[in-house]
Specification:
This protein has 412 residues and is an alpha/beta fold. It has helices at residues 16-30, 34-37, 52-65, 81-92, 110-116, 135-143, 197-210, 282-292, 298-306, 310-336, 360-371, 397-409, and strands spanning 39-40, 104-107, 127-131, 159-163, 181-185, 213-217, 243-248, 261-264, 270-272, 278-280, 341-343, 349-353, 373-374, 376-377, 388-392. The structure holds pyridoxal-5'-phosphate.
Length: 412
């Protein structure tokens, strides 16, 4: 009989969002009118429509595809030169960061990239993640057989978890022990924390000293408003030798449904072969891309390019301004309840400690039943999230104002 990949059987069957949906459905079954009042501040998906510059670029690209002379079939797997150039020039070189076009790999999403990157690493690396954590980093390692079994709280044997707590500002220090791969996500999902230049410098120094690779997820880079906070790991000297950066158009351009992202693999980044020789990773990722991927659609790449136009940039700024305005309202409401409140100043997520003694799921149930608002229980991202809940600012202003009023009315 054909064998399945038994590592999949270790996965905690996507416990978080299915469980949220189950509880929401159970609530609506007992309170049918709740459906009209229900506001979802749970899932990290954008809500505002696509910018006009993007839609125009997509329409024009569709017309090009409709004429024999301008029709395009397969493009370069790594992305069209026009988009790689726009990315490298605007996101990096304009900020004095040396990244070449060939170091940019255009894809259909950062979630895929974060998972696929494991293809080019060996199976015996020691891996560190944060707790709480974006579940993709953990689950893809479980699927690849890089972990042992998971325990009841969702922690897997074989991974090093670095606890993010109020005491460390949700930015854990580098570990004392040596690891080979480290997942970093700043601004962070779910805590909304950002890392300072000196904190990121400590990670780069650690990676260089230990020959480790940093997998830096910068999906929320556009939400950074404080000019002192680095937007890219490559702002840190030495990062070209030890870091891969993931970026996405999902949260800045509202591309969660359009699908476009990119990964930066610097040519200087090297890893060890089984026999201890140093070899660059860039050719491996390039080979992986051209073997397993046929590129992002031309129409989508033109859409992404439009985000770098003058109009596109203004529209992205407007979207961020909208969501961060929401964040300000939600932060004020949570603080107004007297609850310890974090994030929401350089990130679209607000991380709130609930009233003492309540678990994350108890908070979730109370907010659902009394305020008819869906939040995300912090413990769903890892045991260090216990007692916390996450509010997302991805919503309309009207919904956010209603949520703020209802949170205050909880009387916490
Ligand atoms: C939303 C998000 C992404 C982006 O994923 P896409 O697949 O590009 O939509 C990446 N990382 C984190 C932590 C996210 O929350």
């Amino acid at each position: 009989m054909a064998r399945l990949n038994s590592h999949y059987l270790k996965l905690k069957a996507g416990y978080l969002f299915p469980e949220i949906n189950r509880r929401v459905k159970a609530f609506l079954d007992t309170d049918p009118e709740g459906a009209a009042r229900l506001i979802r501040c749970g899932i990290g998906d954008v809500t505002e429509p696509l910018p006009a510059s993007v839609r125009r670029a997509m329409h024009a690209a569709v017309e090009e595809m409709g004429a024999r002379e301008s029709f395009r079939g397969y493009g370069p797997e790594q992305g069209y030169e026009f988009l790689r150039e726009a990315i490298a020039a605007n996101d990096y070189r304009a900020h004095g960061i040396e990244i070449s076009n060939e170091e940019i790999f255009v894809s259909d999403g950062s979630k895929c990239d974060c998972g696929n990157i494991l293809d080019i690493f060996g199976s015996d690396n020691r891996i560190a993640v944060m707790d709480p954590v974006y579940p993709v980093y953990v689950d893809t390692n479980v699927m690849a057989g890089h972990t042992g079994e998971g325990d009841a709280s969702g922690l897997y044997d074989g991974l090093l978890y670095l606890a993010c707590t109020a005491e460390n500002g949700f930015v854990p220090a580098v570990p004392k022990e040596k690891v080979d791969l480290v997942y970093l996500c700043y601004p962070n999902n779910p805590t909304g924390a950002t890392a300072t230049r000196s904190q990121l410098t400590a990670w780069v120094d650690y990676a260089l000293k230990n020959d480790a690779v940093l997998l830096f997820d910068a999906a929320y880079e556009a939400y950074i408003r404080d000019p002192e906070i680095p937007r890219s790991i490559y702002e840190i000297p030495g990062a070209r030798k030890c870091a891969i950066e993931f970026r996405s158009f999902s949260k800045n351009g509202g591309f969660t449904g359009v699908r476009c992202a990119f990964t930066v693999v610097p040519k200087e980044l090297e890893c060890s072969t089984a026999s201890g020789e140093r070899r660059p990773l860039h050719p491996l990722w390039n080979r992986r891309f051209s073997t397993k991927f046929n590129g992002v659609s031309y129409v989508t790449q033109r859409a992404a390019e439009a985000l770098y136009s003058e109009e596109g940039r203004a529209e992205v700024a407007e979207l961020i301004h909208h969501y961060m305005g929401n964040a300000e309202i939600l932060v004020a409401a949570a603080k107004g309840c007297g609850l310890p409140t974090f994030g929401g100043t350089n990130a679209p997520y607000i991380w709130v400690h609930g009233p003492k003694g309540l678990t994350s799921w108890e908070i979730f149930d109370t907010v659902l039943k009394k305020a008819n608002v869906v939040v995300t229980p912090g413990s769903g991202f890892g045991p260090a999230g216990e007692g916390y809940f996450r509010i997302s600012s991805f919503n309309s202003r009207a919904n956010v104002e209603t949520v703020a009023a209802r949170l205050r009315a909880l009387g916490w």
